[in-house]
Amino acid sequence: MNTQPTPRASVRVAQLDAIPPVPCPCGQARRAFKDPDNTLATVHLTDISKDSRAHYHKRMTEIYIVLEGEGVLEADGERIPLKPMTTVMIPPGCVHRAVGTLRILNVPIPAFDPADEFEVHQSEAS
Q: For the whole model, what pTM was predicted?
C-alpha cells in the first residue's frame, strides 16, 4: 500500500516587534497574520494608551493577554482589573475599552477585519 502525505499549509512566522504599528481605538497595534487568505485568527501586539476609545465587534471575539502595565477593562459597564498575565475573552457585541498604559497580545477570532470594528461615542457608552 502506497500512502502519500496530506498537503498542509505552510507554517507562518511573524516577528511582532518588526511589524510597523497602525492606529487603532486602543492605541497602536502591530498586526500579524493579516494575509487575505487567513480567516482563522490574527495576533496583535497592542500598546494601549490612556485615551483608548470604546468600541465593539459584531462577529469577532478578542482574547486579551496582558504583558505589561496595569489598568482596567471596561466591558459592558463592568470594570475588570488588568495586570500582567491577566487574560480576558471579549465576545462579539461587548462594548469595551482598556484604561491605563498597557501592552497586550490581542488574538482576534476570526481574523481581524477592520469593517467589523465600530467605535462608540461617549453619549452611546453611557
A: 0.87
CATH code assigned at 55 = 2.60.120.10
Contacts for 69 with CB less than 8 Å, ≥ 6 apart: 48, 82, 83, 84, 100, 101, 102, 103
Whether residue 7 lies inside any domain: the answer is: no
Residues 105/84, Cβ–Cβ less than 8 Å: no
Q: What is the pLDDT along the chain (126 residues), one digit of tens a residue?
A: 555 666 666 899 999 999 999 999 999 999 999 999 999 999 999 999 877 899 999 999 999 999 999 999 999 999 999 999 999 999 999 999 999 999 999 999 999 999 999 999 865 544
Alpha helices in 1-126 (DSSP H): 122-125
